[in-house]
Amino acid sequence: MSEPISFVDFKPGEVMGSVSHTYSQELSDAWGEIFGEAASESSRRAEAAGVATVMMMRAYLEVVTPRPPGNIHARQQITTQGTPCLGELISNQISCTSKEVRRGRRYVELKAVGSGNGQRPIYTGHITLIWAT
């Protein structure tokens, strides 16, 4: 196993990596289990917007690894430009936008961008972390 990512490893402006996820029937079924029913046509957009958030967080967890213990997930924000379609492959890219030390804590800002078929914009997200080391 490699060493955990440290604060000095973050380079503002650099892409850290990307990963693709499919908005699968299995993911839709799991969403239905959480909310007690399968998505209907009227609730499919709400489900898809929630799935975009799931994809953003999965991309962060897969790209920014290994992480040291003790990090704090301070904030996240997501703006959807579209919603993924069932069966669509979504490309998720994670980049570092900034880092700074404030009040003795190491803050890291990450940007997550998701795009679907034909580079169709799905979401733009921002994740703020207080990095442990």
TrEMBL record:
<protein>
    <recommendedName>
        <fullName>Thioesterase domain-containing protein</fullName>
    </recommendedName>
</protein>
